Amino acid sequence: MNRHSHVFSGVAVFVTALTVYGCDSKAPGADIVAKPPAKVPISPPTPPKTQPPAEPKTDLDRSKVPTSLQSDAYHYYSLSNTKSLDMEMTTKPDSAGVVTGSMSARMTQVDKDGATFIVETTGSLNAQFGSETVALKPTGLWAVSSDREKLYKPQLELPTGFSSGKPWTVDSMAGTDKGKIRQNVTYSCKGERSIKIGDTSYTALYVEGEGTFTGPGLSSRVVMKEWFVKDIGNVKMELVQTPKGKPPVTLDMVWKPTDSKAKS
Question: Residues with Cβ < 8 Å from 258, sequence gap 6 or more?
Fold first, then answer.
C-alpha cells in the first residue's frame, strides 16, 4: 500500500451532577406504613437470538486470471498469493505503539480485460489502512476505492513492467477527514536486493519513491522504500515523512511470518 492514514485520539470530559436530599424533623420511620410486597409476574426466559451464518466471501480461483494479466505487478503485489501476510508496523517518534494485523487479497471478478481484488487488513492495522479495491489491468495495478479515504481517480500502485526500472509518478488526490490530501511521488525499481525476514533470506525487487504530501496545514517531503518478493508481496516498507519546519516521522512495516510453510 502506498497511502497511509493517521489516527488521532481525543479526550472526552464527563460531568456528573450530584443531588443533595434534605432531612425531615420527624423520628425516622414514624410515618412509614408497612405494605405487603407486590406480586411480580414471572415470565418465561427469552431465548437468545441466533445470528444466521455469514455468507462466504468471494475469492475466485487464480487459475482464471488470463496469462495476459499475469504481469510482474500481479505477482509482486501478492495478488497471486491466497495466503494472508502477518504484518507489524512501528513509527518513530512512537505515536501509536506497535500496530499489528494481517493483509490478504481476494479476487471478486475477472475477465479477459481485467480483474478486481479486495485487499483486506485485520487487527489494529485495519484502523490505519482499512481495506481497498484494486483493479488489475494490462497497464498495471490501480487502486480504485478505499474505506478510509475517497479516491478522486484511480491511483497507480504498480505499472506493468516496473521491474525494468522505468520510473512512474503517482499524482493523486484523496479526501480524508482532515481535507483533501495530494500525493505526488515518483517511483522507480532499483533491481533485485536480498532481504532477511526472520531467519530466511529472500530475493526482492527494491523500489524507491520520493515526492510530497500536501493538504490543509500539511506540506511534507516523503521518501519511500519498498521490498517486493514474487508471489509473496510487499514484505517491507519504510516511509520517512518530513513536515516543513518539523522533525521527520519514520514508519516501518515488515512481514512477520508465523506459518512455517510461508518461510520455505
Answer: 86
Cα–Cα distance list, 16 to 12, 176, 197, 227 (Å) = 13, 35, 52, 53
- Residue environment code for 163-181, b if the CB has 16+ CB neighbours within 10 A, otherwise e: beeeebebebbbeeeeeeb
Query: What pTM value is reported for the model?
Result: 0.78
Closest CA to 231 of 209, 252, 261: 261
Nearest to 125 by CA among 91, 75, 76: 91
At 72, phi and psi to the nearest 5? -65, -35
Residue 111 has phi, psi (to 5 degrees) of -150, -170
Q: Which amino acid is at 213?
A: F
Which residues, other chains included, contact 40 with Cβ-Cβ below 8 Å and sequence gap of 6+? none
Q: What is d(CA 177, CA 209) in angstroms, rounded to the nearest whole number?
A: 25
Burial of 49 (0-12, 13-18, 19+ CB in 10 A): exposed
pLDDT over threshold 60, residue 33: no
HSE, side-chain direction, 13 A CA sphere, residue 104: 14
Element (H, E) at 124: helix 123-129
pLDDT given for residue 71 in this prediction: 97
